[in-house]
Amino acid sequence: MNEVIVNIIGTAQDAGVPHPNCFCQNCINAIHNGTRRFAASLAIIEPDRKQWHLIDATPDMREQMADIQMKYRLQGQIMNSIWLTHAHIGHYPGLMFLGREAIGAQGIPVFCGNNMKQMLEANAPWSQLVELNNIQLNSIGHEQQEQLSPSVRITPIEVPHRNELSETFGFWIEGPTRKLLYIPDIDRWDEWDRDIYDVAKKADICLLDGTFHSIEEIEQMGRNYKEIPHPVMTETMDRLQDLAEHTEIYFTHFNHTNPVNDQASAFAQLVQNRAFYIAEDGMELKL
Ligand SMILES: [Zn+2]
Ligand SMILES: [Zn+2]
Ligand SMILES: [Zn+2]
Fold this sequence. Notes:
The protein is 22% helix and 24% strand. It is an alpha/beta fold. The chain is globular, with a radius of gyration of 18 Å. The structure holds zinc ion (3 copies).
């Protein structure tokens, strides 16, 4: 059977860890100990076919590409397609490396929502990538399945998020044996017209928005939880606790302030004790 691997190539909130212009303890640790996290992203690799696909094109794409190409002997082999969740800065600026100043790619298929497609087509510098045919934009729609290859199917699902510039999608990624649900960014679970419990129940593996650990973390930042449009990990764990025994549920997209950045923290321990997982850069999941 053809092997399908998802490599978690980034696990940080959009700006990464260390966060620019921040010298909090997590950021200092990341600078000194090399425990940095790239912006949240996935690579889907089929080593036998020598093909790979990218979910989101982050500002860290240069390093993320090199890691994947070295690890799976794909040197010089550009990604076969890119699927974008939405137009926030951690999720699409990597497209710039495909342009004339860098790779000068030819016709890389890029899949994104209609609003995002229009935004990229209408605004420089992204419009130049389209004009020079570095990328070929294709629109995706809620629950419109696409076959990435005979062994991999991908299905976008629209989720509520601060949609100033584009709609926001999560993705189902289905391999020969397992089905993964990826939702790196979402506003509150309550604002979704479906129940995350029912959705997650259909998955073998979930990778979910873990931007903030708890309401206390947000208050310590001097922010009001009501103004922060993310579910907190403690709430997500409460909702999904029953599933955690049977489903591998990972958190990703960590803000630099999140105490789980430090694996030795009490919060990281709590997550593990509740049978949930903290995604780390470079983790491999077999589908
Ligand atoms: Zn994000
Ligand atoms: Zn920091
Ligand atoms: Zn976002």
